[in-house]
Give the backbone structure.
Amino acid sequence: MIKKIPAVATGLLSVAIIGSAIAHESENPAVKARTSIMQLYAFNLGTLGGMAKGEVEYDAEAATRAANNLVVLTQIDQSAMWPAGSDNASDPSTRALPAIWENFPDVSAKGQAMAEAAVAMQVAAGQDVGALKAAMGDLGGSCSACHKAYRAPKD
């Protein structure tokens, strides 16, 4: 009887893994891609924000890496990641509001502002914590501007 428990557990685990793989297969790859980019933005912004807030000791090398990563991320052509019908009204796995597709020029302008703020952070990040803090306002503001207009709040 004891030997049957591991076999049952292994079988249940296999079903869960296969079910998970099938669920991931049916996800919209465009939504997955843009969500991944947003997670990378958040990871690098978290590094910089932690230093700016004094929650993490300032490290010029780590700050520069995070800023460099943000610049690269803002240069990725995301146009294929925003197909019509991939908003939160059509796909509950995303928080992207339908308004994005109604005003793409504004979204693009906000993306350009973030790219410019990332370049400014790239210049400031390795100087000192004061320069990093000064650049953080524009960088965070560029994220917030787009999120306030085009992202649904968390449930």
In short: Residues 29-53 form the longest helix (25 residues).
